[in-house]
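Before the break, one more example. Copy the sequence into your notebook; we will annotate it together after we see the structure.
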Amino acid sequence: MKKVALIIVVVVVSTASLWAQNYAGAMQNALAKMGAAKSTTDFVAASQIFERITQVETAKWEPAYYAALSLINGSYTGQEKEKRDQMLDQAQKFIDTCLKRSPENSEAMTLQGYLYQARIGVDGSRGQEFSPKAAGALKQAMAWDANNPRATSLMAMNIFYTPSFYGGGKENALPLFEKAEKLFAEQPKSSSFTPSWGEEMNQHFLQECKK
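Here is what the structure looks like once it is written out:
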């Protein structure tokens, strides 16, 4: 009986170890595809891999996070407004899943702000509706983690695109971009799946502010 129990333990441990390796491999594969994506089709294909991982790994928030990120980034590569909005609708579902699995997650709330900004990217006339929503989400993300460089950078971007007579513009955005630069340099890397994007974009806007 003791021998049977030992065999069961070994099988369970081996299976768990194998699945952990499969999860890591699947995530790395999907991240590579998202990193190499150029077209809308590429980004959607990467999001679909993350979606399948999300369905299997029901306790993890990262697959849903990256599924949303891939769709948001992909929305900027399309031309048709309706299809771009459909991508963002799908991304919103993944963000909801992410926040359900990991409440008060600063990175997920940052993605919410990023999605609102992408809604403006689809149609600039939506700024009055979505700019305050983006600012609200990013403010919440910064409240949950004051050292989140992506939340700080995207908040700076929100200010950058806000008219100066409303308190926006380059001069008002610059201090936050500079703060984000320091936070990017100091950000800890707790796992290979910890969000780390945004530094290059922050550098671009830093240079724009200094022109």
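Residues 24 and 191 are 11 Å apart (CA to CA). Residues 6-16 have pLDDT under 50 and may be disordered. Try to locate both features in your own notes.
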